Write the C-alpha cells for this entry.
Amino acid sequence: MTKLSVNINKFATLRNSRGGNNPDVLKAAIDAERFGADGVTVHPRPDERHIRYSDVRDIKKIITTEFNIEGNCSEDSLVDLVLENKPDQVTLVPDAQGQLTSDHGWDTIQHRDYLRDMIQTFQLAGIRVSIFVDPVIEMIDGAAETGANRIELYTESYAREYASNKEKAIAPYIAAANRANELGLGLNAGHDLDLTNLAYFAQNIPGLLEVSIGHALISDALYLGYENAIQLYKRQLKG
Ligand SMILES: CC(=O)[C@@H](O)[C@H](O)COP(=O)(O)O
Ligand SMILES: NCC(=O)COP(=O)(O)O
C-alpha cells in the first residue's frame, strides 16, 4: 500500500500567526503517527514562515516513523540542517526565495551535475534522496542520471484538471511512473492531493510508494473537528 506522509507545515503557520505554542507542532507530529500516518513531512523555508529549523530538530528527536524533509538545497543552511538531523529522506525542491508554495519541478537536464553533487552529499550521510519533478519523460530520464533514489511527481496539474477530465489529468503521470519504474527510480508524489482526487491517483499510478499531503488534509482536519470543538466550548458555558 502507498504510504501517507503527513505534511505538518500548516500547524506551524497557525502557531506562528499568534506567537506562543498553539497549536503544538511537535504534538501534531506525534499525533500524526498515533493516528496512523506512515511518516511526517516538513518543508522549512528560509523565512521560517511555517516550520522553523528548531521544529525540525525537535521532531527528529521524537519521530518513530519516516521523517521527510523537503526544501531547496541551494540554501547552505538547509543542507546543514538536513545533515545534522539525518532524516530518512530528503526531497529536493527547486523553490525560489519567498515563493508562496512549490510550483515546479527540477530541470534535471540543466541541473544534472549540481543535483548529482548534492545527492551524493546526502547519500554519503545515509539519507535517501528524492527529487521533485514534473511528469515529463525527459525530466524522469534526467532524474535517473542524477543518481536520485526516488522522484516526487509534482501533482498540482493533476489536481487542477481532475474535476474536468480525470483520465486526461492522470495520463502524463502514468507515463512518467512507467518510465520511473523502468529506470529503477522509486516513486513518490505530492502537492494538492486531497480526498476527491487521491484514490484515483493511487489506484492508477503503478509503483507509487508514498504521497505527502498537507494543505488539504489539515483543512479537512479543521472541518471534521469543527462541530466537536464548538460543542465542547458550548458545554463550558452551560450554567
Ligand atoms: C514540495 C511541495 O509540493 C510542497 O507542497 C510543499 O512541501 C508544501 O510547502 P508549503 O506548505 O510551503 O506550501
Ligand atoms: N510534497 C508535497 C507536500 O508535502 C504537501 O503538499 P500539499 O498537500 O500541502 O499541497
The chain has a mean pLDDT of 96. The radius of gyration is 18 Å.
